[in-house]
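Lecture notes, part 5. Sequence design as translation. It can be helpful to think of inverse folding as translation between two languages: the language of shapes and the language of residues. The source text, in C-alpha cells, appears below.
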C-alpha cells in the first residue's frame, strides 16, 4: 500500500501499525526532535508535535503537559538511560513504541563521532514488555519484523531471518 511512497520497510510498517490503532484525529506527542518519520506522520494528516531536544533522562516536563492523546516513541528508548522514568511521567493513556531489538550476532550500536547517537539499551522483546508492565501499561498489540541488508556475508544472511524491530501499542492500566 505505502511501498512506493515509503520504500523504507520500517517506515511503511510503522505507519500501517499506527493507522491500525488510531483514528487519525488524536493529538500526538512524538518523543524526540522532528525526524523523517514525524514528517511522514504529518504528511499523512496526523496532528504531531515533537519534543524539543531536551534530555528526557533528566527532564520529563514536556511529558507531564496535558493536551495530547497519544505518545509515540519510535526508536528513541534505546538512546535513553532511564526509559522507566519516561514511561512513568507520560500523561497520555496510549503509547506506541518501536525499538531495534538486541541481536546476538551484532554488538549494540555506538557512534564513534556522536556521543548522543548510541544505544544504551537494545532490548529483547520480553524486556520491553516487562518495562511496560512495571510502569503501568498493558500491551494491546505488537509486531516484529526483519531488516535485511543488501550485503553478502553471514550477518547479512542472518538479518534476513532474524527480527530486528519490535513495535507495540499499549494503553495505561
Amino acid at each position: 500500500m505505502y511501498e512506493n511512497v515509503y520504500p523504507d520497510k520500517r517506515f511503511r510498517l510503522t505507519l500501517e501499525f499506527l493507522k491500525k490503532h488510531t483514528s487519525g484525529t488524536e493529538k500526538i506527542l512524538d518523543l524526540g526532535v522532528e525526524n523523517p518519520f514525524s514528517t511522514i506522520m504529518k504528511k499523512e494528516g496526523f496532528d504531531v508535535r515533537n519534543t524539543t531536544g531536551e534530555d528526557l533522562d533528566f527532564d520529563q516536563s514536556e511529558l507531564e503537559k496535558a493536551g495530547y492523546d497519544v505518545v509515540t516513541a519510535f526508536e528513541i528508548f534505546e538512546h535513553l538511560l532511564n526509559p522507566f522514568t519516561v514511561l512513568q511521567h507520560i500523561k497520555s493513556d496510549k503509547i506506541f513504541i518501536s525499538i531495534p531489538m538486541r541481536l546476538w550476532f551484532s554488538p549494540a550500536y555506538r557512534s564513534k563521532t556522536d556521543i548522543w547517537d548510541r544505544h544504551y539499551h537494545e532490548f529483547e522483546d520480553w524486556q520491553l514488555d516487562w518495562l511496560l508492565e512495571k510502569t503501568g501499561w498493558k500491551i494491546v498489540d505488537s509486531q516484529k519484523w526483519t531488516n535485511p541488508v543488501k550485503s553478502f556475508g553471514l550477518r547479512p544472511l542472518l538479518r534476513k531471518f532474524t527480527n530486528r524491530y519490535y513495535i507495540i501499542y499499549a494503553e495505561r492500566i
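The translated text above is only one of many valid answers, since several sequences can fold into similar shapes. The helical segments are 9-21, 36-43, 83-89, 125-134, 154-159.
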